[in-house]
Specification:
There is one protein chain. By secondary structure, the chain is of the alpha/beta class. It has 3 domains: about 160 residues, Adenylosuccinate Synthetase, Chain A, domain 3 (Alpha-Beta Complex); about 160 residues, Adenylosuccinate Synthetase, subunit A, domain 1 (Adenylosuccinate Synthetase, Chain A, domain 1); about 90 residues, Adenylosuccinate Synthetase, subunit A, domain 2 (Orthogonal Bundle). The chain has a 10-stranded mixed sheet, sandwiched between helices. Strands 14, 16, 17 and 18 form a 4-stranded mixed sheet that branches. Strands 3-4 form a two-stranded antiparallel sheet. Helix 4 packs across helix 5 and helix 6 runs antiparallel to helix 7. The longest helix is centred in the middle third of the chain and has 18 residues. The protein starts with about 35 loop residues before the first helix and ends with a strand. This is Adenylosuccinate synthetase, chloroplastic.
Length: about 475
């Protein structure tokens, strides 16, 4: 049995707010191994304090795709924000407002995005909401208003006329459906994402382009509401109020609506550079994830082709984003999950609370079989390993390297939930580096043990880790040469 994991020094929240130690608080249950003066220095540091700039790196790919490889919340938005400075178009292909991307600009200002692509912070990139996204327009306009108040122009935003609309009735159905499941709840965000995709599959959904003909739109919305009323006892939705609301919404949104399939393919023909921003992640994929504890779309590479109308032969870089550990929101099997004081400390240090829901995330060690599985499905060409700094105080880091079921090794992620719930994780113990790396910007300046951890992950998955995140700021990234 491995030695217990210990954190040296006091846990330091990975957030811009000052770290405050409350008087009378119980002593940290994890061993303190560094001097008090060192802890004080760490407590008083500012995440966005001046640091040497990250090494420059231009991605040589006309079309690059950024995908989540775990259960979401890996930090995709930050990499998209960094790469967007090099691209002409940044596009979302699937998901809805259940996606949450938190970005910090170079001055430490925080932006929380849900439907608007993370490239909106680049002053030159056109941002596309593709046909595979489900769009709740009131939420989108709230997000636009917040961004405008923060000084971010959203004039470069275009929404696919083929994207499906998500209504408040879908949110109502989402909640009612979860109640029906009782003790077997999926743990959705209750943002109506699943029911909106269900309407699309039932072929009674309503698309953004339908707002051009309000007479037909009204008929479709009333029929959609009737379907929900007939199916769910207790269904409450004022369809007439929504019909009137959408008459006003249509006037506002139609100037932003266009044929994004033509736009993106014309841009490719012209040699423009396109960056695709994934939402959610592979282990939540409707086909490849831990079904039924998954999202309602395909956050894997297939969802990019179907969600934008861009042929896969045009994808030149497929970048997988993975945390240096793992997190998960909602129900479902989670082989490397940790509990107790260690989980609480990692959650606090990593600020592991949902951007969209605020829910505390479950926390676990890095799961190599799951990451290798995501690598193969998506054909990853690069990896961005994020939040390495969160592990900086650990004396020993556990790396989940293999699955065993009933004493037998299995080589991939099992499709059956019952089997996955029985998985025993095989771990390797990796020595920690126990030093602050949040100001490191060059590969040569990373501690040897941090490099060794990265090298072992690369060895096990067979893909180079190109970018290493060491903090939430835009500049807090290390590029491996």
């Amino acid at each position: 049995m491995s030695a217990p994991i210990k954190l040296g020094g006091l846990p330091t929240p990975r957030a811009s707010a000052p770290w405050v130690v409350q008087k009378g608080a119980p002593p940290c249950t994890l061993q303190r191994q560094r001097s008090r003066s060192s802890c004080v220095r760490r407590a008083s540091r500012l995440i966005f304090a001046s640091a040497a700039p990250a090494e420059s790196h231009t991605l040589d790919a006309q079309v690059a795709v950024v995908l989540g490889t775990q259960w979401g919340d890996e930090g995709k938005g930050k990499l998209v924000d960094i790469l967007a400075q090099q691209y002409d178009i940044v596009a979302r292909a699937q998901g809805g407002a259940n996606a949450g991307h938190t970005i910090y600009d170079s001055e430490g200002k925080k932006y929380a995005l849900h439907l608007v692509p993370s490239g909106i912070l680049s002053k030159s990139a056109q941002c596309v909401v593709g046909n595979g996204v489900v769009v709740h327009l009131p939420t989108l306009f709230e997000e636009i208003e917040t961004l405008e108040e923060q000084g971010v122009s959203t004039e470069r935003l275009i929404i696919s006329e083929r994207a499906h609309l998500l209504f408040d009735l879908h949110k109502e159905i989402d909640g009612l459906r979860e109640e029906e499941l009782a003790g077997k709840k999926i743990g959705t965000t209750k943002r109506g994402i699943g029911p909106a995709y269900a309407s699309k599959a039932y072929r009674n959904g309503i698309r953004v382009g339908d707002l051009r003909d309000m007479e037909t739109f009204e008929v479709k919305l009333r029929n959609l509401a009737l379907d929900g009323q007939q199916r769910f006892e207790g269904f409450q939705y004022d369809v007439e109020a929504d019909v009137e609301q959408y008459k006003e919404i249509a006037k506002r949104v139609l100037p932003l609506v266009g044929d994004t399939v033509e736009l993106i393919n014309d841009a490719w023909d012209e040699g423009k550079r396109i960056l695709v921003e994934g939402a959610n992640a592979t282990m939540l994929d409707l086909d490849f994830g831990t079904y039924p504890f998954v999202t309602s779309s395909n956050p894997s590479i297939g969802g990019v082709a179907s969600g934008l109308g861009l042929a896969p032969t045009k994808f030149q870089a497929i970048i997988g984003v993975a945390k240096a550990y793992t997190t998960r929101v909602g129900a479902g099997p989670y082989p490397t999950e940790v509990f107790g004081d260690l989980a609480e400390d990692l959650r606090r240090i990593g600020v592991e609370y949902g951007t969209t829901t605020g829910r505390p995330r479950r926390v676990g060690w890095l799961d190599i079989p799951a990451l290798r599985y995501a690598t193969r499905i998506n054909g990853l060409t690069h990896i961005n390993l994020t939040k390495l700094d969160v592990l900086s105080e650990l004396e020993t880091i556990k790396l989940g390297v293999g699955y065993k079921v009933d004493g037998k090794s299995i080589t991939s992620v099992p499709s059956e939930i019952a089997t996955l719930e029985k998985v025993e994780m095989e771990y390797e113990d990796i020595p920690g580096w126990q030093t602050d790396i949040s100001k490191v910007r060059r590969w040569d300046d990373l501690p040897k043990n941090a490099k060794d951890y990265i090298a072992r992950i690369q060895e096990l998955i067979g893909v180079k880790i190109e970018w290493i995140g060491v903090g939430p700021g835009r500049d807090a990234i290390v590029i491996q040469p």
